[in-house]
Amino acid sequence: MSHHDERTFVMVKPDGVQRGLVGDVVSRFEDRGLKLVAGKFMQIDDDLAQEHYGEHEDKPFFEDLVEFITSGPVFAMVWEGADATRQVRSMVGETDPAESAPGTIRGDYGLDLGRNVIHASDHEDEGANEREISLFFDEDELVDYDRVDETWLY
Ligand code: RTP
Ligand code: MG
């Protein structure tokens, strides 16, 4: 990983997995020139859900959020590239799909605030990317490799 690259945590939520959107989401980040460094298809348990969404524990929607994210398998990923956290967020769209521009993942596929297909680390929350990566992945699950021609990566 070169020094100006950044890693960010992304996850296709249970609705996205059930609707068969994993491949499309992965394709979008590949097409954008980001580099995949980790991926895990998994079932989140209650403890991990509570910790992942800890910032929202006092919100009225917290219980629903934990219930939803543990309702079925998710596809967790780490993507790398210059300014990756911000780039991914701009491709994800707004929290509410109704406010998300067409062309964004939530603008194209999101149904409502809960079923908004994807989670991505918040670029306005300093260190959220690294925190979330280490919550979901062990260091040895982050694969360090070169793409054939890095000239074409973001
Ligand atoms: P995320 O963390 O999932 O990438 O989404 P986000 O930053 O855009 O949204 P955030 O404010 O962190 O909220 C986390 C997730 O909680 C659900 N939510 N429900 N009912 C509500 O008012 C409400 N507000 C947020 C959404 O599924 C959101 O992605
Ligand atoms: Mg968030």
UniProtKB/TrEMBL annotation:
<dbReference type="Pfam" id="PF00334">
    <property type="entry name" value="NDK"/>
</dbReference>
<dbReference type="InterPro" id="IPR001564">
    <property type="entry name" value="Nucleoside_diP_kinase"/>
</dbReference>
<feature type="active site" description="Pros-phosphohistidine intermediate">
    <location>
        <position position="119"/>
    </location>
</feature>
<keyword id="KW-0808">Transferase</keyword>
<feature type="domain" description="Nucleoside diphosphate kinase-like">
    <location>
        <begin position="5"/>
        <end position="144"/>
    </location>
</feature>
<feature type="binding site">
    <location>
        <position position="61"/>
    </location>
    <ligand>
        <name>ATP</name>
    </ligand>
</feature>
<dbReference type="InterPro" id="IPR036850">
    <property type="entry name" value="NDK-like_dom_sf"/>
</dbReference>
<keyword id="KW-0460">Magnesium</keyword>
<keyword id="KW-0963">Cytoplasm</keyword>
<comment type="function">
    <text>Major role in the synthesis of nucleoside triphosphates other than ATP. The ATP gamma phosphate is transferred to the NDP beta phosphate via a ping-pong mechanism, using a phosphorylated active-site intermediate.</text>
</comment>
<comment type="similarity">
    <text>Belongs to the NDK family.</text>
</comment>
<keyword id="KW-0547">Nucleotide-binding</keyword>
<dbReference type="GO" id="GO:0006228">
    <property type="term" value="P:UTP biosynthetic process"/>
</dbReference>
<feature type="binding site">
    <location>
        <position position="106"/>
    </location>
    <ligand>
        <name>ATP</name>
    </ligand>
</feature>
<protein>
    <recommendedName>
        <fullName>Nucleoside diphosphate kinase</fullName>
        <ecNumber>2.7.4.6</ecNumber>
    </recommendedName>
</protein>
<feature type="binding site">
    <location>
        <position position="95"/>
    </location>
    <ligand>
        <name>ATP</name>
    </ligand>
</feature>
<dbReference type="GO" id="GO:0005737">
    <property type="term" value="C:cytoplasm"/>
</dbReference>
<feature type="binding site">
    <location>
        <position position="116"/>
    </location>
    <ligand>
        <name>ATP</name>
    </ligand>
</feature>
<dbReference type="GO" id="GO:0006183">
    <property type="term" value="P:GTP biosynthetic process"/>
</dbReference>
<keyword id="KW-0546">Nucleotide metabolism</keyword>
<dbReference type="GO" id="GO:0005524">
    <property type="term" value="F:ATP binding"/>
</dbReference>
<dbReference type="GO" id="GO:0006241">
    <property type="term" value="P:CTP biosynthetic process"/>
</dbReference>
<keyword id="KW-0067">ATP-binding</keyword>
<keyword id="KW-0479">Metal-binding</keyword>
<keyword id="KW-0597">Phosphoprotein</keyword>
<dbReference type="InterPro" id="IPR034907">
    <property type="entry name" value="NDK-like_dom"/>
</dbReference>
<feature type="binding site">
    <location>
        <position position="89"/>
    </location>
    <ligand>
        <name>ATP</name>
    </ligand>
</feature>
<feature type="binding site">
    <location>
        <position position="13"/>
    </location>
    <ligand>
        <name>ATP</name>
    </ligand>
</feature>
<keyword id="KW-0418">Kinase</keyword>
<dbReference type="GO" id="GO:0004550">
    <property type="term" value="F:nucleoside diphosphate kinase activity"/>
</dbReference>
<dbReference type="GO" id="GO:0046872">
    <property type="term" value="F:metal ion binding"/>
</dbReference>
